[in-house]
Design brief:
single chain, Maltoporin, Chain A, 22-stranded antiparallel β-barrel, four-stranded mixed beta sheet, disordered N terminus
Length: 670
């Protein structure tokens, strides 16, 4: 049966969907960012899932949603205060893949699926775009996060084409009834500095607000002294205010505005001699990217009688880019918009939701207008959750989109939950689609100047399935997940025959022949002994794609078959923290790499310490203790410029080497 639940306003509801259908939950938070509710007259801790639309408690939802809780976020923020890359990278089945070694951009691959299929949300809103740019992952600080929700596998039935591979939903802290905040100061041994801050305060009995701001600096680094920058330099500033209102009759409003400005520099150092004999104009090759992103979003909830709820949400994002690729300058603009409304309701053992949405994704290039596109995508969606018995639950969702370029698209998803005693067994199957754009991974670094206009592309489609089994007893949690994906019409880069080239367009994007197939298994073990927490994970991925040399199938590039991790964390809240982590990455098939066909396996080791005295915490973090760096094995630079315009190989290892960062965190209002 569905569980009782108490809202922040004191109204007892039978199902949490009435206060959360994609927006924020107005409930108190404990120190770790979890929401506390009453059940059976005792205060117990539960985490409410927002990414699954109907706001189920995570342990009771048929849709599997993995949670990175507030405690883990605070730990990772000490390691990488400037962005969320490390926060998500150390989650089982999640891989942060560098797409441009020069600029340092990266995307998130879920269970081996391509990073462009992952939808990044903030409080259920696509504030970073319908198709998040790779560099966007490195421009989001974790300072104000309460937790992070991850749905793996096709979630197009819930969020449309951009969620073909899954969803990462960043949940912000909800202000409490007192003024609180923190300031974090950080410096690294690679000449990087971060200042981040978070402040929240009640504004009246019904309103509250928060603001997050950060300033980040990184000096460009040439670690192997070859004249090419290995760690891009940047100057970045971010600010995000949030506003919350709770009405007397259960209605609520959440509004946010964000701004980010960054200047990022890479390529060759000034007067680097290595390029004088290789570049066509005999000059150094500089890579620059200036970004200005502005966004806004809102979520409004309104109860309609006793059992219905109206939810309206919307967002708008505009991102201006000024690029320099050697002697080529590119100026472009990305924008996306969303307006969505839904009605949800419940009965004793079921809940449902119906809604409609209009999504818009636009690209406008001043330099190469032949790549401009404007996708308009109206759609309708629904979700139905049923508690068939005390141990069996079912969730069915479906969406129909009318894409302005790729026509009518149907995306279903089915999830089943079975919970006998201490066991939790889930199964899921979903289908979805992705609308191709020029921005595949191989274009991140060279830009559009050598790319032929897109022609005759079909939408990319995927079917995903998973079964996971978990067993929990006392302080021990174990789980195993089996997953599979079939992806058709994958877009990839192809070199154009010299006789067919026009206007220096040397490459084009085509749909790959044959399907990409991914099969794998995740293992997870968590154990807590007193104040020490042990987490072990293992990921096996068997991936294949059709070879372009007619030799059958080959492993998908940059996809290790074996990877594993171990984290040991000893923490006493308000006193100290000491952690050790070890991550193993197995061999990966490489493509267009003149130095090798397969990478070496490698280990990443790190250690973190923090001491807290009153409201001030002092931390020291050492990363990559073994000083692993790809340029110790092979050059990062290609012997000559690739047809696409790229100068570097793919990153299969690390390019930063041993790094130490240290700083202080000052909190108040706790």
């Amino acid at each position: 049966m569905l569980k009782d639940f108490v809202s922040a306003s004191g109204t007892r509801l039978l199902f949490p969907l009435l206060i959360c259908t994609g927006g924020n939950v107005y409930a108190s938070e404990n120190d770790h960012g979890h929401h506390e509710h009453e059940h059976d007259s005792q205060a117990i801790e539960k985490i409410q899932v927002k990414a699954s639309r109907l706001g189920r408690i995570v342990t009771e939802s048929a849709t599997r949603t993995e949670i990175i809780n507030g405690e883990e976020i605070q730990e990772k923020a000490l390691m990488r205060p400037g962005n969320i890359s490390m926060l998500v990278a150390e989650t089982g089945g999640v891989r942060v893949q560098t797409t441009s070694p020069a600029l340092g951009s990266a995307n998130v691959r879920l269970q081996g699926l391509y990073g462009r299929y992952t939808q990044l949300l903030s409080d259920g809103l696509p504030l970073y775009g319908g198709q998040t740019a790779s560099i966007g992952l490195l421009q989001i600080p974790p300072t104000d996060l309460a937790n992070v929700e991850i749905i793996k596998g096709s979630a197009s039935s819930l969020y449309g084409s951009s969620a073909l591979g899954g969803v990462i939903n960043l949940i912000s802290r909800t202000p409490s009834h007192r003024t609180e905040g923190e300031v974090l100061l950080n410096a690294t041994s690679r000449n990087g500095q971060d200042i981040t801050s978070y402040f929240a305060t009640p504004l009246s009995e019904q309103t509250s607000g928060s603001v997050t701001a950060g300033i980040h600096h990184q000096k460009a680094q040439d670690l192997d002294d070859d004249g090419w920058i290995d760690i891009a330099g940047y100057e970045r500033a971010t600010v995000r205010p949030r506003f919350y209102w709770q009405g007397d009759d259960g209605e609520s409003l959440y509004v946010t505005v964000g701004a980010m400005k960054e200047q990022r520099d890479s390529g060759t150092l000034d007067n680097a001699a290595i390029f004088r004999a290789t570049t066509p104009d005999g000059n150094p090759y500089q890579l620059k990217q200036d970004t200005l992103r502005l966004d806004t979003g809102f979520v409004y909830d309104q109860p309609l009688g006793e059992v219905l709820n109206l939810n309206v949400r919307g967002s708008a994002m505009n991102q201006d880019h000024d690029h320099q690729y050697g002697s080529v300058l590119e100026f472009d603009d990305h924008s996306s918009y969303l307006i969505e409304s839904s009605v949800s309701g419940y009965s004793d053992n079921s809940a449902w939701l119906f809604g409609s949405a209009l999504q818009s994704d636009k690209f406008d290039s001043e330099t190469f207008p032949e790549f401009n596109y404007s996708y308009q995508v109206p759609g309708v969606f629904s979700q139905f959750d049923l508690d068939a018995s005390d141990t069996v639950s079912l969730s069915v969702s479906a969406r129909v989109d009318w894409h302005s370029e790729y026509g009518k698209q149907f995306s279903p998803r089915v999830s089943v939950l079975y919970q006998p005693d201490n066991w939790t067994i889930r199964g899921a199957y979903g289908q979805g689609f992705y609308a191709p754009t020029p921005f595949i991974e191989d274009i991140d670094e060279p830009g559009l100047s050598r790319l032929a206009p897109l022609e005759n592309l079909e939408e990319e489609r995927a079917s995903t399935a998973s079964v996971d089994v978990s067993y929990t007893i006392a302080n021990l949690e174990t789980s195993v997940t089996f997953f599979a994906s079939d992806v058709e019409n994958v877009t990839e880069l192809e070199v154009i025959n010299e006789a067919e080239r026009t206007n220096n367009r040397q490459v084009r994007i085509v749909n790959a022949q044959g399907d990409s197939e991914i099969r794998g298994t995740e293992l997870l073990l968590r154990y807590r002994w007193r104040d020490i927490k042990f987490t072990g994970s293992y990921l096996y991925t068997d991936s294949s794609e059709q070879s372009d040399t007619n030799v059958g199938t080959v492993p998908i590039t940059l996809t290790p078959k074996h990877s594993a991790g171990l984290v040991v964390m000893w923490e006493e809240h308000g006193s100290h923290l000491l952690g050790f982590e070890a991550y193993y990455t197995g061999t990966q098939r490489l493509e267009n790499n003149p130095y090798r066909d397969y990478s070496d396996a490698y280990w990443h080791l790190g250690i973190l310490g923090q001491i807290t005295v009153g409201s001030i915490s002092y931390f020291l973090n050492a990363e990559n203790l073994l000083n692993v760096r790809q340029t110790r094995e092979d050059p990062l630079l290609l012997p000559e410029q690739a047809p696409s315009g790229r100068w570097t190989t793919d990153i299969w290892s690390r390019n930063d080497g041993f790094t130490v960062n240290a700083g202080i965190r000052i909190t108040f209002g706790d």
